[in-house]
Amino acid sequence: MSNSSSLNEFLLLAFADTQELQLLQFALFLGIYLSALLGNGLIITAVACDHHLHTPMYFFLLNLSFLDLGSISVTVPKSMANSLRDTRAISYLGCAAQVFFFFFLFSAEYFLLTVMAYDRYIAICKPLHYGTLMGTGACVRMAVAAWGSGFLYAVLHTANTFSIPFCQGNTVDQFFCEVPQILKLSCLESYLREVGLLVVSLCLAFGCFIFIVLSYVQIFTAVLRIPSEQGRHKAFSMCLPHLAVVSLFISTGLFAYLKPPSISSPALDLVLAVLYSVVPPAVNPLIYSMRNKELKDALRKVIQWVQCQHQ
Ligand SMILES: *[C@@H]1O[C@H](CO)[C@@H](O)[C@H](O)[C@H]1NC(C)=O
């Protein structure tokens, strides 16, 4: 079909073919998007305003909420706009921007979750050294490392993916520009470089995964040795939300990318993509605020303050 020089837009997968179902999808995405904005916005306000929450753990949570807000804004608004306008098109530049920001924000989030596991490990297994190991300087360096490596990574993937000539049309079988689907459009063989890069990324991701698992093995061994029931409960409530968020992030991602090709169908791929790209940013604030008393108190204060302003 067309070659790369004449390719100036891609066509995304629509969720439905009738106008009514498209409106339904629009309403559903709008609901999810608004709840993500509200949840993450509340956490950002609570952590920024309550000085009880000015500790490394909550600063990292602040970072996580910003990343969640960003990552859900990469895919959902465009898909909503398209279903409202009854079109499937995304410009070449728009597609490249989606790939870039998607990689940037999701890999930064994954690196940040690894840093947060380290933070919980130090807090629970080496509490006496927490102050020295997790000082302001060290925390800022770790946060910068997470954002920086996400950025670098995104530059590499985007440059690599879009330097490949495309010769299989311009229909992306996903509701946003997802790299594996874009690679399917490339001329045979030239995509091997990007596949190589993806394999390297998977190894890196696996390294982080092992690090997180080892941290949690140490954390659980330490927590189970705490003699008092109350102490155990407190220690668990400090790390279970993080563990839940990590598990959700990794399990949905793994399932989407490592499922056997035999059970692949466009509908299943679509549902899985929603699961790993849309659901975690929307439910992370919920998971974090559900079990954490300090955060709940801070959120209550924010809500009371807002109510006072309206009276
Ligand atoms: C991210 O975390 C670092 C380290 O705790 C903190 O200094 C910084 O203010 C946070 N940045 C954002 C945007 O949340």
Question: How would you describe the overall organization of this protein?
Answer:
This protein is mainly α and 311 residues long. The protein has a single domain (4-309), classed as Rhopdopsin 7-helix transmembrane proteins (Up-down Bundle). 76% of the residues lie in helices and 2% in strands. The protein is built from eleven helices and two strands. It has helices at 19-49, 56-85, 92-125, 130-133, 136-162, 179-183, 192-224, 229-258, 266-277, 279-291, 293-310; strands at 9-11, 89-91. It has a two-stranded antiparallel sheet with strand order 1-2. Helix 1 (19-49) crosses helix 10, helix 3 (92-125) runs parallel beside helix 7 and helix 8 packs antiparallel against helix 9. The radius of gyration is 21 Å and the shape is globular. It starts with 8 loop residues before the first strand and ends with a helix. The structure holds 2-acetamido-2-deoxy-beta-D-glucopyranose (NAG).
Summarize the structure.
With 311 residues, the protein is mainly α.
Kindly provide the name of the CATH class.
Mainly Alpha
The dominant shape is globular
Give the termini distance in whole angstroms: 63 Å
Main sheet attributes: strand count, strand direction, barrel closure = 2 strands, antiparallel
Number of domains: 1
Helices and strands, in N-to-C order? Answer: EHHEHHHHHHHHH
Strand content: under 5%
Please tally the β strands and state the result.
2
Radius of gyration: 21 Å
CATH topology heading: Rhopdopsin 7-helix transmembrane proteins
**Content-based structural category:** mainly alpha
Report mean pLDDT, rounded to a whole number: 88
